Amino acid sequence: MRPNSQALKQRSLHETEREFGGTLGAVCIPVLLPLTVLFLISVSRSPEASLLQWPPVLPSTHQLWDPVALVLLLGWIALHALLYAMPLGKVSEGLTLRDGTRLKYPINGFLGLCVSGVLLILLLELGAPLGSLFELLLPLAVCAIALSFLFSIYLYIRSFWAPSHALALGGNTGNPLYDFFIGRELNPRIGNFDFKYFCELRPGLIGWVVLNLGMLMKEVELRGSPSLAMMLVNSFQLLYVADALWNEEAVLTTMDIVHDGFGFMLVFGDLAWVPFTYGLQASFLVEHPQTLSPLGSLTIIALNGIGYYIFRKSNSQKNQFRRDPTHPSVARLETIATATGKRLLVSGWWGLVRHPNYLGDLLMALAWSLPCGFSHLLPYFYVIYFTVLLIHREDRDERQCRAKYGLAWDTYCRRVPYRIFPYIY
Ligand SMILES: NC(=O)C1=CN([C@@H]2O[C@H](COP(=O)(O)OP(=O)(O)OC[C@H]3O[C@@H](n4cnc5c(N)ncnc54)[C@H](OP(=O)(O)O)[C@@H]3O)[C@@H](O)[C@H]2O)C=CC1
Ligand SMILES: CC(C)=CCC[C@@H](C)[C@H]1CC=C2C3=C(CC[C@@]21C)[C@@]1(C)CC[C@H](O)C(C)(C)[C@@H]1CC3
Known about the structure:
By secondary structure, the chain is mainly α. The protein is built from 19 helices and 6 strands. β3 (189-190) and β4 (193-194) form a beta hairpin. The longest helix is centred in the last third of the chain and has 30 residues, at 294-323. The ligand CC(C)=CCC[C@@H](C)[C@H]1CC=C2C3=C(CC[C@@]21C)[C@@]1(C)CC[C@H](O)C(C)(C)[C@@H]1CC3 binds at residues 33, 200-201, 205, 243-244, 251, 254, 256, 265, 268-270, 273-274. One of its GO terms (molecular function) is Delta14-sterol reductase activity.
C-alpha cells in the first residue's frame, strides 16, 4: 500500500462524518424505502389514491410476484449491458483519481435510448401488450428491489479485494452496516465495465420512460386514446431522460461518480427508486384521468420549458468552465481564485444562486405533477421528495466545498447569498 493511500485510509476511518443519519439511517433506510416504493405503486392504482389512507393498501402475494417480471427485468439489464459494452461511440476520461490515474468511460447511452426506442416500436408493431406493464409494476418493483439487495451485497463483499486508493473516503468507516449502505468501493468494475456509471444512467433511467410508455398504452387500451395529461407527463420525462443521456459525459463530474461509493443507496436509487417512483404521475393518470384546459396546458409546458432552460444552461456552463475555463462561452465570466488552483464562478448562472441547476430541476419536477390536477397529493410526491433530496444534497455539497475551498468558499457565499431559490433560500 502506498504511504499516501495509507494516510487517506486512516483519515477516512477516523474522521469521516457519517451522512444520512449514520448507522440508524443505514439500518432504517434500506427497510423503509423499498416499502415506500411498493406502497406508492399500490396507492397510485387504488381508487382513493390517498397517501393518508388507513389501513394502507396491502397487495396480495400474487400481486407481488410474477416470473414474467423477473425475466423482463433481467433481459432488460442484459440488453443494456450488451449495448454498453459494444465498442460504439466515443470513450471519455473521468476526473483524476487519488492514485493519479483516469478511468475510461464509453459515451453511448443515447444510442442505448435510441435502440430501446426502435425495439419498442417493433414490439408495438408486432402487437406486444405494452399496457400490461401497468399490471406488472408491482412484481417488477419487487424484482428490482431484490436485485438491488443482492447486487449491493456482492459489491460490499468484493470491495474487500479492492486496493485502498480505490475506496470511497466516506464509505470506509469500518461499520459494516453503514459502509454497505453508503458503498465502500468508488468505481467497482469488471474489466472496463463500470457498474456505477452503467447503473446511473441506463437500465433505471431508460426503464422509467419505458414504464411511462406502458402506462400510456394502458390508457389507450382503457379509453381508446392517450390523454393530454399523459402525453405531457411522458414527453417531459422523456426530454429529461434523453437530455441526461445526450449529455452523458457531464455525469462523470457529478458527486455520485466523483465522490460517493457504490453501495445500497445508489444501487437501489438507480435500479428501483428512479424507475418506480419518478413516473408515479403516469400510473396515477391511468386510474385517475384528468382534463386539462388549453391555457393550463400551455402554462405547464412553459414552466417545464423554463425549468429545463435553467437546468441545462447552468449545468452546461459549469461543465464547460470545469473542462476548459478559456472557452469563449465562459472566459468572460467573473470568477474568484481558490487555494486549490481551481476557480469558482461568481457571475452568469452561478452568480444568481449557488445551485441554479437544482432550481431548474425543481421547476421541471413541479411541471410533471401539475398535469395530474390538484385533487390528490400522490402525484406531487416526486416534487416534495426531490425538494428534500436537493436541499440535503446542497448541504452535503456545501460542506464538501467548504472543506475543499476554505475561505474562498465563504467569499463565494457572501457574493452569492442564496442557495437554490433567489431571495428565498
Ligand atoms: N433527478 C434526480 O433525482 C437528481 C438530479 N440531480 C441533478 O443532477 C445535476 C448535478 O447535481 P450535483 O451532482 O448534485 O451537483 P452540481 O452539478 O451542482 O455540482 C456541485 C459541484 O459544482 C462545483 N461548483 C459549485 N459551485 C461552483 C461555482 N460557483 N463555480 C464552479 N464550480 C462550482 C463544485 O465542484 P468542483 O469545484 O469540485 O468542480 C461542487 O461540488 C443537477 O442538475 C441536479 O439537479 C441531482 C440529484 C438527483
Ligand atoms: C432516496 C434515494 C434512494 C436516493 C438515492 C438518490 C438517487 C436516486 C439520485 C442521486 C443522484 C441521482 C442523479 C440522477 C438520478 C437520481 C440519482 C441517481 C440523474 C441521473 C437524473 C438525470 C439528470 O440529468 C442527471 C444526469 C444530472 C442526474 C445525476 C444525479
